[in-house]
Predict the structure.
Amino acid sequence: MDDVQSKTATPTPKPVVHHRPPNRLPLLLLLLLGVIFLWYLPVLLERIEYSRTRGEVQAIKEALPGMDLKALSKSFALVYRKIKPSVVHIDTRRLAETRDRFGLGAMFGNGAAVEEGEGSGVIVDPAGYLVTSYHVVENASKITVKLDDGRSFPATVIGRDPAVDLAVLKINATGLTAADWGDSDKLEVGEMVWAIGSPYGLDQTITGGIISAKGRRELGSSVFQEFLQTDVALNPGNSGGPLVDVNGDIVGINSAIFGRAYQGISFAIPSNLAREAYETLREGEIVRGDIGVSLVPLTPRIAHQVELPDDVTAGAVVWYVRPGSPAQAAGVRPGDVIVQWNGQAVKGDGELQALIARAPIGSKASVVLYRDGQEMTVETTVTPRRPGE
């Protein structure tokens, strides 16, 4: 038997792999770069912000000369230059009676003391007429007006209207510059205005601000007063000076402040009201209209009681009707709610009082009112208001 030789395959030798330790240098380098970046990042951001800010400032520097801001600032200065020659300083002297502890000072002839006061005013006619606040010259025995050019003149009171706090003075002077009247009805809340006067005796001081509100009523002692509210800085001595608009025209006569010193709220008589009083006082005494009613505000409670329709939210409530008055003759009764006067909607009792007061004496007025939930229209006649009412 043949021998069978077994053939076994010789195994292929495996290549020897030598394992080297990992190279950590790139990783360490990345970590190092990360630490450096994180450390330098705030500095880098600060420099970027600085560069950006510096670039913005430089851009502003380059842009400002080409903008109208300087022209705008100059225009404000022109407003001052326009009104300045028309603004006056007013000094007053009045006798004030003083008494000793027995109340006998005046009896022995030593009870008179002189009180000095000051305020501002504005020339409105080159013939020498100027307006100021009534309280500036109230009970004054001597009034001296100092002009912008330094001249001083004694002044005469032509007319007084305590109800709106206005007085008209006259000086005998030549070479006067009169200010122009503006239209206060066209003013909008937010418009820029300036006040010029003599706060604390500092002549020709100008302060600026905006119209904060219009039609402020019932802030004083008279139902006929109406005010523009501003944030213009006013202080004692500003009273009677002009409030002017961007054209340098009179849009108000500065009258009052909130509190004893400026707190950001000041008031001026609207120019249209002041001008009307001025023109009337130049011709004679002011006579206001009346129909013989006393009015109170309309409240939700009253509206419910008198059964007003839901869409009627404003008006004036008749509290009293004087016997024999035009209102009584027209059939107006207490409790009526007046909502229209000569076609004009009535917003409140103060506004209605002003509308009646400004109506021509002898004129007929159509009055729309509500009574027991029903709308009615009556006609009444405007008569002169009684003295002291």
